[in-house]
Amino acid sequence: MGDLKMFSASEVSFHTSRDDCWLLINGKVYDVTKFLEDHPGGEEVLLHASASGDATDAFENVGHSTAAVSMMESYLIGSVEGYVPPYVASGEASSRPTTYAEANKEKQATFVDYLLPVLVLIFAIVAWYYLTFVIEDEKK
Ligand code: HEM
Q1: Sign of torsion, CA 82 86 87 92?
Q2: What does the record give under GO molecular function (predicted)?
């Protein structure tokens, strides 16, 4: 690391060719020109991700290994000033949920969710009452 530069997003968008290919991932800029041939996923996907402007989603959707993530370090050349993550730029959300509980927070239990257990309980009490008292009474 050491000599990392600050780039504007528009500058990054000029480097999308086979002999000059940069990737913008999570606000960081990677020069993957020398990596194109060696990338296990092929060079086409890298060129496409580069041309798309922001390769963050493409990179993350693949579910790259930690080995892949640590390889990135060697291609890092800088970062983008005032970087806006793609999910914010697209207006999808102001922040991405990070936990299961956060992602499901609107799904609070409703009345119907309680109805079934309550009905089962009422049925069990009625059955117990019936078996304990009504049948016993009949035997007498
Ligand atoms: C500097 C950036 C990148 C590095 C260092 C990198 C590295 C790697 C590595 C090491 C693998 C092998 C599997 C693994 O270890 O996860 C891989 C697979 C793959 N990569 Fe990347 N990658 C980068 C960017 C991208 C981008 C932007 C895309 C866009 C779609 C992409 C698409 C893929 C695909 C589709 C595979 C799967 C290949 C397969 O399983 O057949 N990669 N990458």
Answers
A1: positive
A2: heme binding; metal ion binding
30: Cβ below 6 Å to ligand 1? yes
ipTM: 0.94
Q: Per residue in 83-105, pLDDT tens?
A: 988 878 777 765 666 677 666 66
Give residues with Cβ within 8 angstroms of 4, minimum separation 6. 76, 77, 78, 79
Separation of CA 2 and ligand 1 centre (Å): 25
What is the DSSP code (8-state) at residue 82? T
CATH topology of domain 5-97: Flavocytochrome B2; Chain A, domain 1 (3.10.120)
Please tell me the distance between residue 133's alpha carbon and the centre of ligand 1 in angstroms: 71
pLDDT single digits (tens) 38-68: 999 999 999 999 999 999 999 999 999 999 9
Q: What is the pTM of this model?
A: 0.71
